[in-house]
Structures are given as structure tokens and as C-alpha cells.
Amino acid sequence: MNTNIKEVLAKSEPPKSLKQHVDECLWVYESLRKAFERLPVDDLNHFWELVRLGVIFHDLGKSHTGFQKMIEGNPRDWYHQRHELFSTPFIDLLDLPDEDKLLLKLIVVGHHKDFNFLFAHIQHGYKTGDDIFSITEDGKLDWEKETQKIDYRFIQSFLKEYNISLKLSSLAMPIQLVKDYSRNPVNTKNVNFKELILAAGSH
User: Fold this and answer.
1) CB burial class (10 A; 0-12, 13-18, 19+) of residue 103?
2) Which of 158 and 128 is assigned the larger pLDDT?
3) For residue 162, what pLDDT is reported?
4) Contact present, 134 and 140 (Cβ < 8 Å)
5) In whole angstroms, what is the distance from residue 25 CA to residue 54 CA?
6) Predicted model pTM
7) 37 with 43: CB under 8 angstroms?
8) Domain of residue 65, CATH code
9) Which of 11, 111, 141, 162 could serve as a FRET partner for 22 with CA atoms 20 to 30 Å apart?
10) Strands (E), the chain
11) φ, ψ of residue 7 in degrees (nearest 5)
């Protein structure tokens, strides 16, 4: 599928492309950065760069063909899936320390719903008529097949607009991330919790 950047929508009413949406979010990001010149973090420039990456990556999962059909009024192929679960795995393809990747993944996967909701969604899904939706081994949908519905060429072109290059590969479902954090949300051993709170608040 050869998708032009402008053809991938982030919003439906009124229609707004993913590029427009992210650029607007980055404008807010720049305003926040100017407004908060002093924050209690060790490396301020590094912190704001992670926030910037979170803004750019947070809605990549919306390039899923099922989401695009849903936003155009045909939800049949979306099955109440969560676009943030499809956005998060791309962070693993960045050349960053594991600690930074973890912080970014927590920001992106949690930018709409709390982790308890997402864990229940992954494990049990939604009841739609007589069907139970779940992205587990026993579920109705297969994660690998669903990630193939993401437009990888679009993702690469989109990220190049922000000087980010990815060597795309298979995407791992972020179930362990969601499970661990829903069970132990304040985990100062594995992530800089102070930075997580500040960065999540900016999203």
C-alpha cells in the first residue's frame, strides 16, 4: 500500500491528517518548553528530546488500515483495537538506551487509557454481540497479522519528515510492558519516575 502522508488521518471531525495533528502537538511542545525552562531533571535538553519523540510517535498506530476505515465511518475491521498499542512497538526500533525506550513506551502506550484498562483490554477485550475480542493466543485477532495492516512505508516517510530513520522489522506486542506497569505502576528501579511524571503530563 503506497500511502501519501496527507492521506493518513488522525482525526475525523473535522478531517485532520496525522502530519497536521503531530505538527500542532509539536507547536504546543515548543510552547511548553519555553514556559518551563527549569525542571527538576538531570539533563533538560535530553528530557525535552524524549518528550518530542513521544509526540511524534504517539499516534503512529493510526496508520493501521482498520483504523483508517473506522475514521472514515466503517469500523468493521477495527474491532475496538487501541491505536496506542500499535504505536508503542516502533520505539524499540530507535537507537536509544533501554531506559529511554522504556520511558517513551510508557508515555505513548498510556497517553489515552490507564494501564489497568489496557491490560483488561488485551486479556479480555470487548464484547461485541456474541464475540469476545482479544489479542491473545486464544483470541479472535492475531497480533502479527494486525501489525501487517500498518503502513510501514508511510511510517518511514512520515518519520523522515522529522529526521528520524527506522529500520523496520517485526513489532512485538507491548503486553509485558502493560502487565508490569499495571501491577507495579510506581517502579523507580526501572524508570526515572520523576521524568515519567513530567513527560506524561506534557502529553
Assistant:
1) buried
2) 158
3) 96
4) yes
5) 10
6) 0.77
7) no
8) 1.10.3210
9) 141
10) 9-12, 15-17, 127-128, 131-132
11) -85, -15
